[in-house]
Amino acid sequence: MIRRVLRWPDECLTQVAQPACVDGQTLALAVDMLETMYDAGGRGLAAPQIGVMARVFVMDAAWKSGDPVPEVFINPEILWRSPQMALGAEGCLSIPDVVADVKRHSEVVLQWQLADGSTQAQKLTGFRAICAQHEIDHLNGIVTLDHLSPDARAAAIAGLT
Ligand SMILES: [Zn+2]
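Above: inputs. Below: predicted complex with zinc ion.
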């Protein structure tokens, strides 16, 4: 089911999400999140963006330029961050029309739970590393605007309609 994507500054986007249970409810949530992400034209979506304060995000780094590769991350945790940083222009489904330059770690090692409850860890690089950091920010009540300097943030917010 396609859910409504909340817009910043909805309070769900400024609060810390709680650990998720790996159960049927969370898996149904993930299915809805993927459907909502594809419908909205995004490559990542975190549960708080649809008003569910659970530590779950979905991502598909590939579908815009090829076959879909849907991924679900339950209770993700960053175990390692590369010292190398990368500055990139990021959009957000919850802050349409704003593209913010955000500095992120180029690579991270991410640990998360799978649908069967097992735990997996993997090094993410490229877009997947950046997207995962963006979505985990959402789980911690942080958005792209929060990475900007006060002046750039004020300018971005002034441009919101
Ligand atoms: Zn976002």
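The two ends are 27 Å apart (CA to CA).
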